[in-house]
Amino acid sequence: MTFSILAAGADGGSVNPWVALAYLVSGVFFILALRGLSSPATSRAGNRNGIIGMVIAVGTTLITHNLATWYEIAIAIAIGGAIGFVIARRIAMTSMPELVAGFHSLVGLAAVVVGLAAWLDPASFGIVDAEGQILMVSRIELGLGIAIGAITFSGSVIAFLKLSGRMSGSPILLPARHVINLGTLAAILVLIGTYAVSGAGGAGEGMLIVWITVLAFIIGFLLIIPIGGADMPVVVSMLNSYSGWAAAAMGFTLGNTAMIITGALVGSSGAILSYIMCRAMNRSFISVIAGGFGADDSAGADGAPREQRPYKQGSADDAAFMLEQAEKVIIIPGYGMAVAQAQHILREMADALKEKDVEVKYAIHPVAGRMPGHMNVLLAEANVPYDEVFELEDINSEFAQADVAFIIGANDVVNPAAKTDKSSPIYGMPVFDVDKAKQVFFIKRSMGGVGYAGVDNDVFYMDQTMMLLSDAKKMVEEIVKALD
């Protein structure tokens, strides 16, 4: 009975109240999903609510639209579900940022494909007037949806290549890039406006759509290549926002309330998160888009070889002895921990220290890793208790009382140059005050590399710092053995 009620009125005209109710319920579940994902303790419930909302939205759409036969739909779902399942099972946690970027590109591409389909066969989408011409408001929606989708696709592809190491994380700065970018964006807006007021159809209209699509693909590429690795968490969040707005624009074209609600939620939440991330780095959103933050991690910020300075190197036995003598240890994880997959053995080390009555806490910087929440995800995977994980503003004042600051794979987020060196590209970014701890252990592979922002770190050379030069997982394993 429910199926027949939902199907009634799906062909346009007045909105079927049961369909509207179903989409409203799915929207509520999406809101609950975002609320749940705001905390590690409720993230599982958030994911579950998101799945329920998506099942309701997709199911309602399939029931109320004669898209294809149930056989064809089942095959499509099976293929897509199998691909997603295999990727989710095989993907390493270190590859999660590029996976997210890759999925964003698919959302953008889907928006472009839907927009082009609506342009080619507008009658099927119910966006034509009595004379068979596409409505002006629908032309605007189509143009914006295609443009935002294309920008999301090409920008996400570049982000994927940078995050996966297939492309240098250093900014690629083109001559007069700001003029080129602004000119290209202006051209896209002019073309969308021209398309909106054009009603002639034919080859001229087709060329407008082609140029909108091509220029949008190009500007997506141009916007991301000048952005350095240190800004990648903001880029991932920004692209997430773009994908949401692209989906919302296509929701208007399709007349699908669920897409509009979901796209608006994703777009607005991504924009808010991007703003929060920029504040965490003391950078404006415009400065991130302008690019130029970050340099090759094999040299200094200016590309010149770094000066060799004396430092203290220790062993796992040295670290284990001093750790078990401590009363309070604060662990600062970074991308190096993710690369080494050291989160599980790190939790074992923390458990061993807690058995010796050592207080252990984890300090998470908002931009640690390569995407928002990267470190939180890794620690949650290792079953680190949520009440031991603290954000920068909640724990930074405790370093003065800490016996040991244990840095594993982090760099820029503990660099005091952010507070003292006005010429540094990270100046003004809030960082952990590890220099106030009585003892600092710093795990990194070698002294040859610096952070993703491309600047040296004075913490390496402090009197209370002991460098533990090794693979992060191997070093922590040796520390655990020494503690046992």
UniProtKB/TrEMBL annotation:
Pfam family, one: PNTB
GO molecular function, one term: proton-translocating NAD(P)+ transhydrogenase activity
Catalytic activity annotation: NAD(+) + NADPH + H(+)(in) = NADH + NADP(+) + H(+)(out)
Record's keyword annotation contains Ligase: no
Assigned GO CC terms: plasma membrane
Gene3D superfamilies cross-referenced by the UniProt entry: TPP-binding domain (3.40.50.1220)
Classification via InterPro entries: DHS-like_NAD/FAD-binding_dom (IPR029035), NADH_DH_b (IPR012136), PNTB-like (IPR034300)
Transmembrane intervals: 20-37, 49-67, 73-92, 99-120, 140-161, 182-202, 208-227, 258-278
EC number in record: 7.1.1.1
Membrane topology field: Multi-pass membrane protein
Keyword Chaperone: no
Subunit text: Complex of an alpha and a beta chain; in Rhodospirillum, the alpha chain seems to be made of two subunits.
PANTHER family for this protein: NAD(P) TRANSHYDROGENASE SUBUNIT BETA
Task performed by this protein: The transhydrogenation between NADH and NADP is coupled to respiration and ATP hydrolysis and functions as a proton pump across the membrane.
Protein's recorded name: NAD(P) transhydrogenase subunit beta
